[in-house]
Write a structure and sequence with these properties.
The complex is a heterodimer of chains A (130) and B (281).
Chain A lengths: L13 H15 L11 H8 L3 H13 L3 E4 L3 E4 L8 H20 L4 H18 L3
Antiparallel strand pairs in A: 1-2
Chain B lengths: L2 E12 L2 E12 L3 E5 L6 H8 L7 E6 L3 E4 L11 H11 L5 H10 L13 H14 L4 E4 L8 H17 L3 E5 L12 E6 L2 E7 H6 L1 E7 L8 E8 L2 E7 L9 E3 L3 H10 L15
Parallel strand pairs in B: 3-7, 3-8, 5-6, 6-7
Antiparallel strand pairs in B: 1-2, 1-4, 8-9, 10-12, 10-13, 11-12
Classes of the chains: A mainly alpha (130), B alpha/beta (281).
Amino acid sequence: MIEFNLDRGSGVSTYLQLVHQVRQALRLGTLRPGDQLPTAREVVESLAINPNTVLKAYRELEREGLVEGRPGMGTFVRQGIAGATLAEHTRLRRGLEAWVRDARVAGLDQEDLRALFNVVLADAAKEGVA
Amino acid sequence: MSPALEATGLGVRFRRTWVLRDCSLSVPTGRVAALVGPNGAGKTTIMHTAVGLLRPALGSVRVAGEAAFVAQDKPLYDSFTVAEMLAFGRRMNTRWDDTAAAGRLAGLGIPLERKVGGLSGGQQAQVAVTLALACRPDLLVLDEPLANLDPLARHDVMRSIMAEVAGRELTVLLSSHVVSDLEETCDWLIVLNGGRLQVSGDIEELLDGHLVLTGPDGASAAGTQVVGASRTGRQVSMLVRGAPPLDPRWQARRPGLEELVMGYLRSPESAALPGLTGVGA
């Protein structure tokens, strides 16, 4: 089971936060195929958010093939997210650490780093790489 | 989907003053609509007209099904116990779900034998909402339901209203002048300003359709519709509608609900209404 929480100051829309949290739980294995997501009513009663927001998030996850709604029963996880393997994670992390050290030496601070990373990420998304 | 609430060319006049002018809007079924605007904008007037407490001088308003209304000064009798309040509601209404009301109060931990005057502000608000819901309305109209409540009580009241919306087909229209209270709970926005309708629409669509631009004075915003702008030294910041401008000196981001509302309230001549392509008078 997953318990949602909201970062109200993040600027990320509520439904996207719910989508991200389910994806993250699938990546980490805290949600597995067959697991049930909380009902819209349960989410709404704990977070005081609009039920349509929850339904929208679940529809998005359904569209991605990650979950399926079973009429009268609820929403269930269909498949996990097959991300990079642990070994690849470690390798990429080493590379990123080296890049951060390099950037520090070049005089960039935390904020510069984050801005640069976000720009590259956004450009990659635009070109359809990430 | 058919609208739960529809107003056409609504005009309301108190003696010689028009408090609501040429107001046309429609709220789809199952939505939670936020009615916002400064004091005296006509929020309470539009609510009174919707539930039939006030007859418009011009135009018409139509509710699909039954409406229940909770006025701002919670309509409860302090000397009544909660049980007596329920009995009162039962006798005053033809449609009345006593089991649901009693169950709801038990779930909230509000004792039936307690006098209403002895309840906390949050509990009184919950009792008033419970009484309105016991009429099994299709449209629940709440005038400033969160006024005078502490943050915890506000959260609790909204939680129970949202749970009700999740449970059945219920449309809610609620007013507030604290926009941050409505950010997560409402999915439809109605902005009233000086008796005129400025904005009416789906909140996500409205936020997706607007941008906050920040850039140097003189940058071209051609291609967008400017809702409002403010200048600080050489920097301009504005709320616009439409696609991002081509000028690369602009930084663009999606507005928050509060920014969108404030942007319109500061520019009373701007409007974002269905059927209107242009912004501004």
